[in-house]
Amino acid sequence: MAQTNQDLITLEKKLLEREEKLEAERKKLDELKEKYQERLEKVSSLTKDEAKKLLLDELELSESKVAAKLIKEKEETAKLEADKKAQEILVDSMRHGATNYIAEFTVSIVKIPDEEIKGRIIGKEGRNIRTFEQATGVDVDLDEEGVIRLSSFDQIRREVARRSLEKLIKDTRIQPFRIEEIIEQTKKEVEKVMFDEGVKLTHEAGVYNLPADLVSILGRFKFRTSFGQNLVVHTLEDVKIGVHIAQEIGADTNIVRLGCLFHDIGKVMEGEGSHVTLGVDLLKKHSIPEKIVNCVAEHHEDKPFSSIESVIVHIADQISGARPGARYQDVEEYGKRLTDMEEIAKKYDGVEDAYAFEAGRELRVIINPGQLDDAQTTVLAAKIRDEVSKSQAVPGEIKVTAIREFRAVATEFSS
């Protein structure tokens, strides 16, 4: 036992000696470190903190270059992916919005059981047919055998006329008083149909609790086309496409939904101004929120876009109108209308030339400055506008711009 204690004491002494030796070595190394650090600072003319900062700055610069390179690569990749994603969103939106559609025209046809009925429709000395045309505001064509053609650019009037004529044919009591009575009854029926169609349209668009007046006006879309594209079909396409885009990019879907629903509401309103102006005035009257009104005001870029939602409504409108099969227009009829507009302007004295463009909604008239002064030019522009509006029945606002320019040029020849 005594031997064991002696061994432990000896071992402890050896450990202490070794520890003292290691401590001496550590101090020696610290002295050497300080010595070499002082020598390094003297050679480099930098303190320890300055050298540390220099190394960190160099490291930061190096890493910044690497980071910049990575950022640039990521940006290029993001651009490529963004373009691809944008294409996918638009294509997918068009796929969601595309619907089957048959182009509509400006003529309705009513079949008649026999030719004898035509005589009763015409009436004595044409009284019945005149009463019918005046009460409905449509033109009646009886030239084709077996059918009666009703012609009008106003599809609501044409629908009232079609339904009324079918009732008169079944009723057989065709006389002026009965004609007016049935037409009034039919107008009320069509108004109810329009309200029901408005409810159907708003519900399909996912919109509820709108004022009854707005719902009735939206129901007029059932009987309104633009370049052969029915407004109900076009509006629902707009809503589907716009909402899909808004969901993809995180925009406000409620604003886009209502903006798409209302964007063409001015087309079924009567009054002065474009369909954009009429639509904006109507929505303001019903206290519709400003962001939605702006979508309507800006969907044809008449004003700068005020929000991403306005841009989406514009894009959705363009996609729906431009997709293959969406719109129909007789090219010959279109060309004839533009020519007729130009001829109306050219027949006035003082007009040198005229050009119709913007789908027949604008007429540019060149005035001979030697024949008309500024005041006469202003009056002439108004006359041409009124005549074109009455004779051509172009939907929307007609803009006539009369240009009168006087130039005096003096030239001198020197010998």
Write the layout of secondary structure elements.
Layout: H1 2-44, H2 48-97, E1 107-111, H3 116-122, H4 127-136, E2 139-141, E3 147-151, H5 155-171, H6 176-204, H7 212-219, E4 225-226, E5 229-230, H8 231-249, H9 253-262, H10 275-285, H11 290-298, H12 308-322, H13 331-346, E6 351-357, E7 362-367, H14 374-392, E8 399-404
Parallel strand pairs: 7-8
Antiparallel strand pairs: 1-3, 2-3, 4-5, 6-7
- The total count of helices amounts to 14
User: Mean pLDDT across all residues, rounded?
Assistant: 79
The CATH topology of the largest domain is what? Answer: Hypothetical protein af1432
Number of individual domains: 4
Quaternary structure type? single chain
- Binned strand content: 5-15%
How are the strands ordered across the major sheet? 1-3-2
What structural class results from the helix and strand content? mainly alpha
What is the radius of gyration computed over CA atoms, rounded to a whole number of angstroms?
A: 41 Å
Give the helix level as a range of percent: 55-70%
Q: What string, H for helix and E for strand, traces the elements in order?
A: HHEHHEEHHHEEHHHHHHEEHE
Name of the CATH superfamily of the largest domain: Hypothetical protein af1432
Q: Tell me the CATH architecture of the largest domain.
A: Orthogonal Bundle
Main sheet attributes: strand count, strand direction, barrel closure: 3 strands, antiparallel
- Poorly predicted runs are 98-104
Q: Tell me, what's the shape?
A: elongated
